[in-house]
Amino acid sequence: MTSKDFNEILDFAVAREQEAVRFYHDLQQESKFAAQMDMLKDLEAMEMGHIVVIESIRRKGVSEADIPAVQNLKISEYLSSDVDNLELTYQNILIKAMKREENSFKLYSEMSAKFPDSEISTLFRKLAADEAKHKLLFEKLYDDWISTGN
Question: What is the pTM of this model?
Answer without folding.
Answer: 0.86
